[in-house]
Amino acid sequence: MIHDRSAWQIIQSISGWIAAGEIADDGSLPSLKVLAELFGVSVMTVRAAVIGLETVGIVRMAHGKGVFVVSPPTILESAFRTRRDLEALMARRAAVAICDSEIDEMRRHVVAMQDAAERRDANAYRTHDAPFHAAAFRAAASPILGSIVTFLKHGVFSFESLALGETLRDPDYLAESNKIHWDFFDAMVDRDPDRAEAAVHRHLDRIDSVRSRSLGSICAKAKTELAQIR
């Protein structure tokens, strides 16, 4: 797992470039040295970010030639499907294995999320969303799966936050999101893996729709960053 915040930011930017279609025709990325200068970090930090992306199949490093995106732009769609499949699998595992203390923790957070949604407080909502999901991840008792999902969610797809932050200010979106989280929580309480998986799919369908609508914001950020190189 990557612990360097700068490496996470590089992963976010590169993923945003891919989503925006701002990659060279041959799929090549700027050199590690150029990326290091762009982000104001060491080449070692850039290499850590690239290795992370290579590990999950987003890019490949060709010795002496550079770093290339694998099948742009369809690779991100493939990665999102993988994220969907893994989160659904973890939801099913969690529904079977979750313990009472984890249910109590999830209950505290989903109640707080409902309160935040009713107050239209997007920041408070997001504050409780992360530990709500973290409790479910722990219940799945699969550190390897959890690490992969975390990398995809907070690394490869962290550029979603550009649009999601704005969308969460929509009271209707907050209310519907909270309803899905309650459905997921109820499935945990009832130890029902089918309902847990269905709630995950509904949740990710909404995120995917936001990601699609936010392409303009993603493109603008990508163009601004890459203008410093080109």
H-E string:
HHHEEHHHHHHHH
CATH superfamily of the largest domain: GntR ligand-binding domain-like
Order of strands, widest sheet: 1-2
CATH topology of the largest domain: Four Helix Bundle (Hemerythrin (Met), subunit A)
Q: Tell me the structural class.
A: mainly alpha
Write up this protein.
The chain is built from eleven helices and two strands. It folds into two domains: 82 residues, Winged helix-like DNA-binding domain superfamily/Winged helix DNA-binding domain (Arc Repressor Mutant, subunit A), CATH 1.10.10; 138 residues, GntR ligand-binding domain-like (Four Helix Bundle (Hemerythrin (Met), subunit A), Up-down Bundle). The protein has 230 residues and is mainly alpha-helical. The protein is globular and about 55 Å long. The mean pLDDT is 85. It has a two-stranded antiparallel ribbon. Helix content is 76%, strand content 3%.
Descriptive key words:
2 domains; 230 residues; two-stranded antiparallel sheet; 11 helices; 2 strands; Arc Repressor Mutant, subunit A; mainly alpha; 3% strand; Four Helix Bundle (Hemerythrin (Met), subunit A)
Question: Secondary-structure map with pairings?
Answer:
Layout: H1 5-20, H2 32-39, H3 43-55, E1 59-62, E2 66-69, H4 74-97, H5 100-119, H6 122-140, H7 143-156, H8 161-167, H9 171-189, H10 193-213, H11 215-227
Antiparallel strand pairs: 1-2
In a few lines, what is going on in this structure?
With 230 residues, the chain is mainly α.
